[in-house]
Amino acid sequence: MIITTKGRYALHAMIALAQLEEGERVPLKDITAGQDLSLKYMESIMTVLSKGGLVESASGKGGGYKLTRKPEEYSVGEILRLAEGNISPVSCQALDGKECDHEGSCITLPFWRELGDLINDYLDKHSLYDLVHMSKA
């Protein structure tokens, strides 16, 4: 499992929004400023986050993005799964509900499932709030 730029940029954007005053909106260009991120690429990521209900957007004067909940109510896992899709450690576990052709005979399947559970548990036990405060430490 490799977290792509899409997942990393989604986390960066969510952290930037979590650092705002509650209810405050910020334009996307301000989120990407100084981070050497493509505005067009971030627009596509923010669309995913918006459609997933993690952020709210408004256009026009005073527009921009804001969180829909408090930072402590978002898990890192929730953000990454929305941005990345399945975050399984092996491709045979990322078949979107389809069974692997070798599922019945795979000796390593229990190992990969347990590793996937550990990864997801770790990501889910850390909140957006935690990331904001880790960055300040």
What's the arrangement of secondary structure elements?
Blueprint: H1 5-18, H2 28-32, H3 39-51, E1 55-58, E2 64-67, H4 76-84, H5 109-125, H6 128-136
Antiparallel strand pairs: 1-2
Helix pairs in contact: 1-3, 1-4, 1-6
> Any idea of the CATH topology?
Arc Repressor Mutant, subunit A
- On the 0 to 100 scale, the average pLDDT is 88
Question: At the first level of CATH, what is the class?
Answer: Mainly Alpha
Q: SSE order, as H and E? A: HHHEEHHH
**Strands in their spatial order, largest beta sheet:** 1-2
Query: Got a strand count?
Result: 2
Query: What fraction strand?
Result: 5-15%
Give the overall shape.
elongated
Radius of gyration: 17 Å
Our measurement of the CA-to-CA distance between the termini, rounded to an integer number of angstroms, reads 27 Å
Structural class comes to mainly alpha
Describe the structure.
The chain is mainly alpha-helical. The protein has a single domain (5-136), classed as Orthogonal Bundle (Arc Repressor Mutant, subunit A). The chain is 49% helix and 6% strand. The chain contains six helices and two strands, in the order H-H-H-E-E-H-H-H. The chain has helices at residues 5-18, 28-32, 39-51, 76-84, 109-125, 128-136, and strands spanning 55-58, 64-67. A two-stranded antiparallel sheet has the order 1-2. It is elongated, with a radius of gyration of 17 Å. The two termini are 27 Å apart.
